[in-house]
Amino acid sequence: MYYLSRTIVTIFVFIFITAMNIHSETAVEKKATAHRYLRVSIAHWDINLYTADAEQIFRQIETDGVAVFQAQPGFIRYRLMRTDSTTTIAVAEWESEQLGQAGAEKYRAWMRSVGIMNHIKLETYTGDIVAAS
Q: Are 58 and 80 in contact (CB under 8 A)?
């Protein structure tokens, strides 16, 4: 399972970076992108993600949760992908590791406050973006 999760993360990060950088960048923009920070979290849920309850949670994340991210300094973008009936992969891009860690903690505090953390076990990978297109 560990290797499958790692493979899914690798594929998703590649797709995310490619999709988010489809415009032509200057050398200065590429250098700035190379120093950005990425957080990828795999969530293993205890509910079926194809139910109405899960769809309600996704709507709540899309509105209130994204608002929490957008209020944080250094936040660039967030994506959430459902991979199957019990797994999601989230990717959050930040200007720096320091801002990303602080912002992620505020987002997790929000998830705890609305009960989402009661339904998931998280596996998070972090690091600098070293290549982008």
A: yes
